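Input chain follows. Return structure tokens only.
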Amino acid sequence: MRAKGITTMKSKNLLQGTIKRHPDGFGFFIPEQVEHPDVYIPRHSMKGVMSNDKVMIEAFAEKNSTRFYGEIIKILSRGTRTIVGSFHKLNATMGIMRDDGKGWGEDLKIPLEDAKGAQNGQLISAEILSFPGDKDGFIGRVKDVIGDSADPLTDVKRVLAKNDIPQIFPDEVLKEAKSFTEHVSEADMKGRRDLRSLNLITIDGATAKDFDDAIYIEQNERGFLLYVGIADVSHYVKNGSAIDQEAYLRGNSVYFPNFVVPMLPEVLSNGLCSLNPHLPRLSLVAEMQMDFTGEVIESDFYEAVIESKARVTYGEAQEVIDGNEVEKLSHVKAEILRAADLAKILMAKRFREGSLDLEIPEVEIVLDAAGVPVDMIKSERLFAHRLIEEMMLAANVAVAKFLSSKNIPAIYRIHEPPNAEALSLLERYMWNFGSKIDMQSGKLQKRLTRALQDFEGKPEAQILNILTLRSMSQAKYSPNNLGHFGLGFEFYTHFTSPIRRYPDLIVHRLIKKQVMPQSQYRLISEEDLAAAGTMLSACEQRATKSERQFQSIKKARFMQKFIGQELEGMISSVTKFGAFVLLRNYEVDGLIRLEGLSKEKLEFDEENLVLVGKRSGVRYGIGDIVKIRVANADPEAGQVDFDLISRIEERGDERKETFVDVEPVDRTKKDFRPSRGDSRRDNRRGGERERSRGGRGDRDRGQRNAGGRGKSAAEPRPAPKAKPQRQEKTFVKSKKATALDKMDEAVFKFLDKANTETESTGKKFDPEAHLRQAMEKWKSRNIPDDRRFQKNADKSSAKDDRRIERVDRRAEGKEAAEDRPHKGSEGKPSRPFHKKDKKKGGRR
């Protein structure tokens, strides 16, 4: 059956829309037909295509799936005419602007005669004369020489300073780093197994520079023999050295688009330790023999010398898996296909045994050379991503089982089950959305996965995935192996990324102590491991928070150029202070404040996650389609605000637009809206989140959708536990409640005054300290004796109860009086109860 909105032309399903180019080379097509899902475009079809071009494609439905893939038929119009970046002189006649953001497909060439005298490194704006794929190639001319390249790390530096993340290595670390050479010496290779004859490959993002792992799979009569070679960082980074101490303090590398704050100096992270292709490298290898069901029969761990035979990007690997020819990878095609076969088996086994698989969309921020965001695209996961993560998960599990079998103190990656209250709340959310699956019976992970599968393809799916994620406890490092709930593993640790995670380096040293008892490596006490687990978990959360803040800042910068424009989006969540709308063409969300949704005051229904107007019946909920106007974008706060224009109802092929009669929100008033910059997801996927790392993803991403609690401005706060409904009574606010309301107003006035004083004095304002000070002053004035306060509060409460009872009795008496005819002294019906009777105590 043909999908709605597709134009049929000579038996072809043709669509028109906008293309988004991913840094790995493949693309995603956003059709003009709103009802049609986005379409995946493979790399080979993206030649000559730039992000935001309008194109026509032929779409094909994937078998047994709701997804589509397509081929570009032709480019209808170009979406980009002018670009900004750094100018570099290529030769005596030609200059170049590099495709740092990977959104053009190739570098822009600029003849020096059209360069307007631009010098190396200067920031320029260039007009495109001919596009990629044109006869003349990708050619442009300088439109304006802006000047010396502005520091692209301004936002990064601010975020790093705010989160106290060190960026510059100390002198003693740099001094140690100078002692390393570019190549592995023969002495370092001595005594290791030589695996250089194996066709090991690395599969990673297009912009990755540090390669932690390489894989190779053989198929034999017993099943699959999997080799996972991991960079042997522990050979170079000695325990207690200056580099080691600095790496421990950093805990992990921190990744931003086109920029990384590495855990190790570059000579190690991008050089000697990185498994670069066609170079001998030292490795710690996990060799696992599996049967044809993916069960590990036996495993071995040892030091080796390896050599990657190909550096494969995710997009290239997907091309091979899809059956397309990639000439430069012909020598490793068989290895990629065998890896795909094993990954399918491992993935099926994992989900069958209860691993969660949450789909939380990631955002890819495309920056130009000046650090200015030029696009926000959805970072879709290919099967190639899953392929590599399954291999890493298998290695991590095998290592955890090995260390546990040795009965030695070790560090594990643990994720505890959700508590009963969080699970009950999640079950209520799902029930309100239509799920009838009981979470209390059977294996919880399977129940959750089945419930989420019921909503696949529906507007509620994304928010339910987020709510499920937020109900989970936070994954962390600990010497107490409590298992990993999200992944469904009894044994799990981190082993596969020692270049960028210090816990992996600890695990490498523990393994070497067991397989090489006479080596210089030593065991670590359980107390020291517990302290390290706490420290390194905190470092991970700090990195996650900084990456989240950076993303919020760049989103706001990106939306500044859209202020005043009208765009279409979907309500992704509602809160008591408004509704968040996710734009259709850009992975950006913004807030429509409560007063901007309706003239009447809306109430937040926490049970059903909707905003409701009781008088008019207006209702805003998740999945509603709306048209908005971009009202404000504040990079400093990382916030985007929208004004509501209209609501859009879709009925089949018809779309009805209803304009909303609401005055634009006055943003000159003091706004106490919670800071969105600090309300993003705290630790997505339990710390196993996919980090951009300049295009580099987390190698243990099977956990990417399994566990970890976080908060998002696009996510509603969880509703408090439902209270039992009591009989409706007339409510009279007590004097104490009124006093508390006045106290709130006084505190806010105090904070306002503190803000004003701070601006005039230039001193740093600490809101928490001022709030504590305000509360202490109020308590000293109003609560001199806690016991007397409690006694008065009890009296006030009892007085309130008696007053409510009197009102009820009066109401009951009134109803009884109205039900039977009463006559006065002259035989006429007595008049109804009147407000004036209140002066007489209610007597007639």
